[in-house]
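User: My collaborator sent over this chain with a note saying "see what the structure looks like." That's all I know about it. Can you take a look?
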Amino acid sequence: MNDMQILENITRPTKEEQIAAMKSYDALANALSELKDNNPEIEIEETREKIRVPLNALKLLAQILKETSHGRPVSIVPIATELTTQATAELLGCSRPHVIKLLESGEIKFTKVGKHRRIRYEDVISYKNKMKARQENLINEIINSDEEAGLYDS
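Assistant: Without extra context I'll predict from the sequence alone. Here is the result:
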């Protein structure tokens, strides 16, 4: 499955899924607080099969359940994944030509595979977080400026 298909297949959880996720999250969060083994054994009730699962994977499952219980769609992307310029544009919510401009100006690191640009997922997320922090700072500056001018009551 390519990056485009991964992004297209993300859907919002149904109400039933949200309720099941909420119940499961509560139970898993409680169990996680008591676990001491780094690879605890869990049992799948329906098949009675017992499997060992890395503790970090169970913690990730807890985060997925929490987000699902709030009705938020979830997608898992390995950190080392490389994205196309189109997938990067969709992730950032901008056009592909704008992404290319960001790449060529050095705002986001990339590598070239033949004629194609590839961008590491973690670099895209890092840029996205940096831009979000910058936006929040600018909003706060505007609010402070408006407060000083008497245009905004805090």
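A starting point for your reply to your collaborator: The mean pLDDT is 89.
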